[in-house]
Write a structure and sequence with these properties.
Strand order of the largest sheet: 3-2-1-4-8
Order of helices and strands: EEEHEEHEEHEHEEEHHEHEH
Shape: globular
Strand content: 25-35%
Radius of gyration: 19 Å
Low-confidence stretches: none
Oligomer: single chain
Distance between the termini: 15 Å
Mean pLDDT: 91
Length: 316
């Protein structure tokens, strides 16, 4: 099984995400007449690394056999790299991408599981050259994750990445005909994505973990704010040059709990884009899961909920 494998069942899709302190799970039903509704939410706090026993308990509690199940890789378990799209037939694409990645990875290309994401180009552009994102993870890591789920009797059909989970939420926020920047933070750092028409155009990691935004020391917190702002300015300037046919509407901060207001105010003073903080209740029906009305819960489940919004990806 590769990354982004298609789902096959009709009973629903259950996303299972690993955090530094446990496991999160979420299932969302999409509707043609209203907001997607969060139908299931579960959290398991652990003081040790994820074990088979913990997953077996999740499998029993949630009766996972009813669902297609997917999991999210963490930031340190894969690499996302931008590459020029090779001019080859579709059936030769992954081989060509693999050849281009051989000198870009921090491990041997023969040890890599690879998948690709297309970045749509300007339909009105004279040139046909465009970029793609390649996702690469070590074969051993993928095998270990598959074995962990298999032992726990969880039918794993998808291995996803945070960029795509965040893309799914960003797509719900986009104004018609304009792009949107979305910035989230977790224990591994910040993740900036820019989407347009439901497609991922830009992804940048920012090495500022959530804990640095939650610290009490104002001076140290301002150092983190400055680092975030500089990276945002560079990334958004690069985006404007690369994708001049897309106009960004705003930058949205994912839920951060108590850390949100100060960061929003700082960014609003230093960036040209309007800055907003996301409340998931504006894009998801949380009526069955009132605990998600708390900003801290929204932060914890943010990427897992994004993964649960997944629809079948186009096969490249």
């Amino acid at each position: 099984m590769g990354l982004f494998t298609k789902t096959k069942k009709n009973a629903g899709y259950l996303a299972i995400g690993f955090t530094d302190d446990g496991i999160c799970a979420a299932q969302i039903n999409r509707s043609t007449s209203g907001m997607p509704q969060v139908e299931l939410l579960a959290s398991y706090l652990l003081s040790e690394p994820i074990t088979e026993a913990a997953l077996e308990k999740l499998a029993k509690d949630l009766q996972v056999g009813r669902y297609d199940c997917g999991t999210l890789l963490r930031a340190d378990e894969y690499q996302l790299l931008s590459v020029d799209a090779p001019n080859v037939p579709p059936n030769e694409l992954k081989t060509a991408i693999r050849w281009r990645l051989k000198d870009m990875l921090d491990f041997h290309i023969d040890d890599a599981t690879i998948d690709v994401l297309d970045v749509p180009m300007d339909k009105n552009a004279a040139t046909r050259n465009h970029s793609m994102y390649a996702v690469a993870s070590r074969n051993q890591m993928i095998s270990q994750r598959q074995a962990l789920f298999s032992t726990a009797k969880i039918p794993l059909s998808v291995i996803d990445v945070p960029e795509m989970a965040q893309r799914n939420i960003s797509a719900l926020l986009e104004p018609e005909g304009r792009g949107l920047a979305l910035l989230s933070f977790d224990a591994h750092g910040g993740l900036l994505t820019v989407t347009f028409a439901g497609e991922l155009y830009l992804s940048r990691r920012i090495e500022v973990p959530l804990a640095q935004l939650q610290q009490a020391d104002i001076e140290q917190k301002n150092v983190s704010y400055e680092k975030i702002t500089l990276e945002l300015q560079r990334s958004l300037d690069h985006f404007d040059r690369q994708y001049h046919f897309i106009t960004l509407s705003k930058l949205v901060l994912a839920p951060l709990g108590d850390a949100s207001a100060d960061l929003q105010q700082y960014l609003a003073t230093n960036l040209y884009l309007p800055i907003e903080t996301l409340n998931l209740a504006t894009v998801l029906d949380l009526s069955k899961m009132p605990q998600l009305n708390l900003a801290e819960s929204q932060q914890r489940f943010f990427l897992t909920l994004g993964a649960a919004l997944r629809v079948e990806e186009k096969v490249l």
